[in-house]
Structure prediction request, 157 residues.
Amino acid sequence: MVGWFDAVEKGNALRYGGFDQIVINKLDALTLDSSVPSELKICTAYQLADGQLTRAVPRDENLRKSLKPVYKTIAGWNENLKGMKSFEQLPAQAKEYISEMLAAIIEVAYPNGWSNIALPKIRFIGIGPDPGEIISDLPTTRQLLESLSPEPLPVAS
Prediction:
């Protein structure tokens, strides 16, 4: 079972623990069968019981259990990724999903802006169960973030 991607959790890990590289694994597991709605979700915030939004992972277990994830919906794809060797071969929706994942992580990690921050590099993307089923010719994280709009992404304040 593949769950929706939690960018709040990963963004908090980047903000407080830091990391230099990201590996995206099992992208092929998100390929959707044509019989189901073609959409994927990314958790970008949590809604507290009082309706307020937070981009922090609470330490209190009871509070965590009461949170409602807030999702951004992204178009999915149903093309088989098997045999793809480059980022350019990926379906447009897969490339957008990767960019949106990264944007959500970065916005959580750096709420005051990321323009002067050394962003983590994507080392590779796994597209199948075999060790050789990876894509490693990837744009920089900054290029992927900027691909979402003609101008750099707005930063959360």
